[in-house]
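#struct-pred

JT: dropping the chains for the assembly here, can someone run the whole complex?
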Amino acid sequence: MPPDEISRRAVIVSAAIIPVAAITATAQQTETALSSTQLRILAAFVDRIIPKDELGPSASESGVPVYINRALGDYLAGEKAAFIEGLEATDALARRTQKAAFADLTPDKQDALLTSMDNGTAEGFANARAFFNRARRLALEGMFGDPYYGGNKNFAGWDLIKYPGPRLATSQDDQKMGVDIKPYHHSAYGENHGH
Amino acid sequence: MAINLKPVDVAVVGLGAAGGVAVLPLARAGLKVAGIEAGTWMDPAKDFKPDEIHNNVRGLVTTVPKAKKEIPTFRTSPDAQARQGATHPMMNAVGGTSIHYHAQSWRLKPWDFKSRSETIKRYGASLLPKGSTLEDWPVSYLELEQYYDIVEHEIGVSGKAGNIQGTLDPAGNVYEGPRQREYPMPPLRTSDYLDHMHKAAKSLGWKPFHAPSAINSQPYRGRAACAYHGYCDRGGCHVRAKNSTCFTTIPEAQKTKNLTVFDKAQVTRIVADGNGKVTGVLYIREGKEYFQPAKVVLVSSYTYENTRLLLLSKSKVYPNGLSNNHGQVGKHYFGHWDAQAGVGVTALFPMDVNTWYGAMLSQGVVIDEWADDTFDHSGLGFIGGASLCTYMEKHPIAAASMLTFGRAPAWGSKWKQFVHENAGRFTGSYLQTNSFPYENTYLDLDPEVKDPLGDPVCRVTSGPKDNETRAAIYAQNKMEEWYRAAGAIEVVKGQPFGPALSTHTYGGTRMGDNPETNVVDKWGFSHEAPNLGMLGGSVFGTSGARNPTLTMQALAWRTAEHLAKNWKSIAG
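RK: done, full complex below.
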């Protein structure tokens, strides 16, 4: 390789390193990604995905909006704008078809709108299905992920599906069938997790 | 200008599963080795957590994520527009992807090395996959056996032999090729679920056995035994029981004082002189460019990057890329048809099976009757098949995302009720299908998409194939039979569509005697640049129906040993 080629490459490399450092710095901030209005739509949305019932608390009671808000503020900052657009389009759908804010609708009416988004028939909301699937996916991450990230409060998600917890070592008895394993209510990061 | 470094005997590009093994025989032979790695060292206490979001959702068990900035583009046919993937399947770190892999450590079958001639002999040439560029390997199973044996003992593999020098033992895999001795450790422990599946397979007259794995079933060479905590998949081992090269062969090689590890060093070009010999590598570390002179260069940067580095390294003698004067670099590429390629099968049981904890595929039970050429393919219209494996380890987000088998909606209270009852009652299975190279499956440089240095990324062209589709569907039906025999009440089979970007990819610098159709010779050295060696899946000519890592490592050891023994003739 000729020397001029080498030095050209070195310049490009130096330039390429700066944005990486900048991205890392952003990732460490914990700013609020969503406004209070957006958080209200989000809570209403995820509470229909995971409602409060005899099996346990709702998504918002379990910190799912906290998880999503934080993720959109750091790790998922790149999709924040698209997510906000989806939340606002959901609210606009409610206002257009039901003449009320999404969060103010009855659970039945919320379910009807979400069903139309889920099956791709939501009127005037082209990306409804993709947004619905993404929001549902993030709700599951918040509800069933480590509480360190702000969701799964009081281990409600893990208890719901009977996941026995992130033990660092397990015995053959912990892998038995037909036996209830005592849940191990700990975050992988100790007790100092995100609540 | 690049900063010139002190010359070494051998520069190894990439200290992962293959390069991390090759450094040991080289260093022991007294050669001065520079191990050049884009990532850095990882700390089990800090980096390896039982955390599904960290490991699986965000894929953060990695260090300098060079790979993430050069994700290949992918298309299913040469006419299609290639699109860049969302994530790179591999990682950069000392130890590479051997840190977070599933660690199943298989020997390929004798048939895998001569699938072409054996197929012609048994069924006639008409059964060869149409459009394939399949050749026999230039090395046989028996020639590789001693290297499998060395690596199994050096890194530590747990398993049960099924064939010791021709004596079969049904506690192991009776369909394996003959081995000279038993594994250094017994298999990982069993579980109720694995015993249940074992019994079901026996009821069908099949021969189940426990998977071989590079995870310690008992303390081995100063490292701990597996703790079965259930975060093996995409996670590093917090007790160093997974025998990643950063805990085994790399530190062993460092003890000789002949290996120097250059971490955070991204190799950008391999340099060749006017006589066609390589003279060293250029790399970038913290914004500065260095030239590492070396008498021999071994490239072990994974299938995609092995091909890309050669194609990017143009010179007077190699105007189309290093070692590419026969136009074979990037050719004969293929991905493994496995669960990620739509071949997986999922089942629901009427009782809790408790597969939360464990060690992924390594704590698994395997069926091998429907793989390779173990069964008669007359009239079936395909060669090969798949190994069937079901295993322990399930993470909560993945469990809550389970299929509902048409029994419940996907959200709301009825869904909560469904996952409450069933998240502990379903399991998945991993079917790895014998896969082959084709004329229209290949790697080249993307004409548009570039990495942050301005270099084109690798472009993958690989579409669905009839032979593999048929073999996969045949194996899926066998998996369903197994699940039904075990009492499953629902079984759902994936639609095999073929592999996209994957951790199991092969070819691009294929090994073979004929320089017109292969890049490296039977020892792994270039047919064109005599002091350039290639390591990893890029030299494979077939995939086998099982995980590739142990075979990459046996070949890496063999290439390194050949180099040390023939130093003068290769290094010149």
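JT: nice. The radius of gyration of chain A is 22 Å. The first helix of chain A runs from residue 3 to 27.
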